[in-house]
Structure formats: structure tokens, C-alpha cells
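ingest -> fold -> write
write: protein_1
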Amino acid sequence: MPGFLLGTAYVNLLAKKYVAEPGIFSDYFLSQFQTIEINVGEYIWYLLRLRLLPLAMLAFFSFTRLRKAAAVLFLIWAGISGGILISLAVLSLGIKGSFLCLAGIFPQFLCYVPAYLILIWHCCLYPQNRWNRQKTAFVSAAMLIGLILEIYVNPSVVRAFLSTM
């Protein structure tokens, strides 16, 4: 929550100049998204970098003495990123922007959030909570299912939402 508030404050107080510029929440960009055909081969490599790099970094640090600091920094980073994204969306599109953000993370975040929570839980509760094969299998399966949903289902969800705007 503090990270989210920092991200919101940043957009509202320090980044007003950038809010006025056209970006991903402009009418032009949103109309282009409805008609563009997604190249799954390229999109999967983009998503692998975007989704697995933070997971790999957090997983790496979860087995070092920096595990708690890494978990806290990850949560602050995620909060700041979410605060910035939602604030920009609301400032550009009003309440529709917040619903667009929800459409943009559905349904894949139903898989990503539990996977990250298991890893963060391990970081915070070690040594009482040990890592095991079941956690590895769950996190791997959740991330894989999330990636598949993000590639094949999410574009349809976002297009359906944009058609109502």
C-alpha cells in the first residue's frame, strides 16, 4: 500500500507534464489495439521477459540472506508501478481507466498473484517455512497458466472491454 500511494503521489505531484502527453491511454492507441493482430511468437518472448525476469530475480534472492529485503523491495516496486499505472489511466480516461486496468490484468493475474505470494511468503517466513517441490511445481504451473491466459485470453478480454468504451 505505501508503494501504491507513492506511485499515485508521483503521478499527481511530480509527473503532471507527462500526463498531458499522449500515451498508451490515448484514443488513438486504444483504437489501434482493437484492430491489431497479435503475433503470438513475438508476444510470448516479450511476456517471458516481462513476467519471468522479476520472478527469477525474486526467486534468486529468496535463497540468500537478502530474502526479506528483496520481498519488501518487490512489494514496494509492484505498488509504485500499480499506483502509477492506475493513476495515469484514471487521469486520462476517468473511471473507465480503472476498469481498463482491471480488464488488462484479467484473467492472468488470478495465476500470477498466488505464484508471487507463495514466493514472498517463503521470503518472509524462512526458516519456519522451507521451500519444497510442491511450491516449485505450484509456482511454475501458475506462471505457465498465467502466461497462456495472457497470450490467448487477455487480448480478447481487453478488446471486448474497449468495444464498450
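write: protein_2
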Amino acid sequence: MLRKIYLLLIAISALFLTGCGSSGSGDEAGCYQKGYAAFYTFEENGTLTSYNEHYERSRLTAAHHDLPYGTRVKVTNLSNGRSTIVTINDRNMPDGDYIIKLSEKAATELAASKEKPTEVSLDIVKWG
């Protein structure tokens, strides 16, 4: 039984450490996740999110596989250092190795390129 608890604690620790180096943000929560961002398409504007809100490209929102709805996340573009804070309101993620899907406004604030993958880090600002 103790062995199972020990292995569980190791697995949980690895979850929080995987893929995150020093984010340099100084936030209390620290780096939550690091990977690639996807972006909503122009055609998705007005569609219903899984949180039962209409997606609006002019809002700072995002989709994430696991984070609770309402969680506020600081997203930093690792190629240029620009960051913005988004609110999780969807689970609609594309296939592939993406960790977050950003609204058009969030992508603009990050100066993210839609032509090549944008590597980002995520820091939890406030849990939903």
C-alpha cells in the first residue's frame, strides 16, 4: 500500500515538472506546462464552446484538455517573450501535440505565427 502511494506521489510530481523549465515569470504558481499552441479558425467565430458560451475571436479565451473551466492562464510565446492571460472555456482541441488552443485575440497579443508552430509555456494565474 505504501509503495502505491509513493508511486502515485512520484507520478504527480512528474506531471508538474514535465516539460517545464524556469519560466522566468516570477509567478507563485510557476510553470504548469510547455508545448505548442493551436489557434481557432475564423470560421469558428460564434460557435458554441463546451462551456456553453459562444466563441468570440475578440475575447481572450482558450481551450485546454484538462484545466477546469474558468481557470485563468498566463500564456507566454517562447520565441519572443510576449504573454497574455486567457480564460479556459472550451475542450475543443485539434489532433496533435497541442497543449492549448487560443482565440484570435490571444494569438495576436502573443504575435504568434499561424504558418509555423508556436511554442508556449502556461502558468496558472487562478484556478477555475
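write: annotation protein_2
Confidence is low (pLDDT under 50) at residues 2-18, 21-28.
Residues 35 and 99 are 6 Å apart (CA to CA).
pipeline exit 0
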